[in-house]
Predict the 3D structure of the following.
Amino acid sequence: MNDQGASTDREGRVRVVGTAHVSAESVREVEAAIEEERPDAVAVELDEGRYRQLQGETPDDIEPGDLLRGNTVFQFLAYWMLSYVQSRLGEKFDVTPGADMMAAVDTAEELCIDVALVDRDIQTTIQRFWARLGPLEKARLVGGLVFGVTDARGIGLALGVAAGVIAGPLLGLFGPSLGLTVPLLTRITGGVLLALAAGLVTHTLADTVLDPNDALVAAGGVGVAAGLLGGVGLGLADGAVGALGPFVARVVGSLTLGLAGGVSVGLVTGWLAHRAGYVAADADELDDFDVEELTDADVVSVMMEEFRAFSPAGARALIDERDAYIAHELIRLRETGRDVVAVVGAGHREGIEGYLDAPETLPPWESLVGTDSGGGVPWLKAVGVLVSVGFVAFFVLLAMAGVRNGFLLRLFAAWFVVNGVFAAGLARLAGARWDSTLVGGLVAWMTSVNPLLAPGWFTGYVELRHNPVNVSDIGTLNELLSDEETPIRQLVAEMFEVPLFKLIMVVAMTNVGSMIASLLFAVYVLPLFATEIGGVDGVTRLMIEGARNSAELLWRIVT
């Protein structure tokens, strides 16, 4: 398969057959065209992975090394998107997407005709599509796939939670100048404690008489009421919080305020956007398709059309790119002197034939393959480099200023422990093995220094060595997520039994733990150490002094 043979003096001929419907009629059209032409080769719009999938083969297990190289995310996205679109097409039209392509393969094999797979690797297509999405487009796409969060209100809530996680530590850092005194934060922390206690008791009692979803709602309502009235309003838990110390009140209180503010702003913004007419891609839009009007049987093109709302330019460019890629492959076959029947989705036929008639208009092959950086400024890499340089510079400048080695060692130990505890703790909470948990905790300090690394990759690496994961688990996840009757708790428990979901949660929770730890360390722990050397002003003065001493040392070395 895909054997293009040696070049001859005679140039071959290519007939492009565009399959017009996802139906049995397309299958018959493909079979008739091949039997009529009896070409030297049949080219189909498939890549190796999709061909194997249509043949019923199970995708390869995810390799641990791929996880560390960052390749796995696109493998996830590729198979998840394909599974998503294929399952919906199958449910809507009672057909198997790709049946026309497999009919071409089967007919060619029956007639002893070579078969060529001429489409670009689906993982490359997904990576290039992903690289061209903006941050909000990525959030909408992932939210739509995983949680169905595609409308303005859902996006507002998700962004509000993210903003709250960042705002909380900032309130802890600048709170005193904003009037956030320790007594006020103590009241808020007491409200949190009472809310948790009341919610837990209510859930335990309600769970015996209500269904799980209603029990959660009741626990949430009672908990919030108890926290606001008893904790914040009356200060019933002030004594308990006072016994824990002002540090706990400052941490919990500021984080609570940040999350409450972020969620409130996110919900209001989402509601206003929804009222203004902002509507994201509706998951039920496929129901409007008519099988007789669906003019492209290529499931990847249907997938791109399905997600065009997320990034019109990105989807359009990738569809055009695939026209050019397939045309390159067909021209290579034609130059070997063979006659070819190319079976493609009807939506690609015009573009491919245009390139076949005018090969000089084809974009360079190199521009169609490999990864795509997105064409913008690599902000993530730039931030990663700055954070790494800043972390090293902080310790070096303090050392050059004459700060005692014992102080620096204790500061580093605190950084190591805080990162390790949070990363390992959340990994274990997600169900990680003990050895995976330990690895994630041990490397968390290092990966926090460089945001381009992630402790979850290392935790996942160890998990995969013991529990292989196959991307075909995505089909199982899709089935579970489509279940609207199973109670939430049972559904979550069943999802954790799927190896792929468990791996995703272990990796994600390890990374989240490390990020939370870095914020908490910078805002709450570092100021405690700073008091030993004159507070924040003292740290600034020492870093300036360290920079001056470093410059003088370099000058003496140079001169």
Observations:
- The radius of gyration is 29 Å.
